[in-house]
Amino acid sequence: MDTQAKVRTGIPGFDSIVSGGLREGMTIVLSGSPGSGKTTFGMQFLYSGAKDFGEPGVFVTLTQSPYEIVNDFKTYGWDIKKLTDEGKMLLIDARPFKMEEGFIALDESLYRGETLPFMHLTQLIQSSLKRVDAKRLVIDSLTVLDMQYTNMFYARLGLQGMVHSLQNQHCTSILISENTDTPQVPPEWYVASGIVLLHHVRKEDTMERTLQVIKMRGVRHNEQIFPIKFSESGLQILHPRLIP
Ligand SMILES: Nc1ncnc2c1ncn2[C@@H]1O[C@H](COP(=O)(O)OP(=O)(O)OP(=O)(O)O)[C@@H](O)[C@H]1O
Ligand SMILES: [Mg+2]
Q1: Using the 8-state DSSP alphabet, how is residue 181 labeled?
Q2: For a surface tag, which of 110, 119, 200, 229 has the fewest beta carbons within 10 Å of its beta carbon?
């Protein structure tokens, strides 16, 4: 029997696929093509954690601006600003560039000249987690960071250190990873304890959205490919064989 504490994701239909939720302190990768719902899944996990389960969360963005994120999710009725004002959620802008007199420049302070990859990001995350006593973390996404390392051994080493530090803090984490169609498997896929894939593919004259759990170490999980949809209040899993 599975006796470990489970973290409920807040994505309707998902927890039952993975024996009741994510294992506390585990790190999973969430991967998919553009527009497949990665950011929505990640934000819903944090939003419902903070709002419904009393678990503060940190969202680290490496792609969209925090302003854009807060605005995008208003359509689901999610008041992210309120949660950040109440200290239940923290949005960290860790995009690897900065604006200088109207020009963009690489932000050397965060990602260059470190002896171990991801060292600065891990430090930034550690201090952010402490600020709100976070139990949940989402990083959106790691792909742009992976790209700057020519030697994947070092990228993997740095990632392993980062994941280890998250485990130590009992922080349940989602690392978003873009599906780049390159033959090389991204290092986070091996380092993380679980992998969830979001598919968004053509079916006849429309597109079909599905979700699949590829791995979940130590958890008995369903291997079906489940249809998903964006409802009025976010993402939900449809269980074709479970609906009466
Ligand atoms: N209010 C809404 N209702 C229904 N669907 C929506 C709504 N808002 C956004 N969507 C759908 O969600 C998609 C965006 O989802 P999301 O940003 O989570 O994807 P993503 O995988 O993070 O994409 P990217 O790789 O570009 O970051 C949109 O392209 C749109 O199809
Ligand atoms: Mg996204």
Answers
A1: -
A2: 229
Model confidence at 205: pLDDT above 60: yes
Residue 38, token pair as written in the block: 């990665």
CA distance linking residue 76 with residue 44, whole number of Å: 10
Q: Which residue has the higher pLDDT, 154 or 211?
A: 211
Q: Is the domain 6-237 a CATH 3.40.50.300 member?
A: yes
Does residue 65 sit in helix, strand or coil? coil
Q: How far is the CA of 244 from the centre of ligand 2 (A)?
A: 33
Q: Which residue has the tokens 């109440």?
A: 86
Would you list the domain boundaries of the chain? Answer: 6-237
Give residue 99 CA to ligand 2 midpoint distance, Å.
Answer: 22
Looking at the CA of 198, which ligand is closest? Answer: 1
Query: Is 152:182 a contact under the CB 8 Å cutoff?
Result: no
The C-alpha atoms of residue 161 and residue 146 are separated, in whole angstroms, by 15
Q: Helices in 133-216 by DSSP H: which ranges? A: 143-146, 152-168, 187-191
Q: Say if residue 183's pLDDT is above 80.
A: no
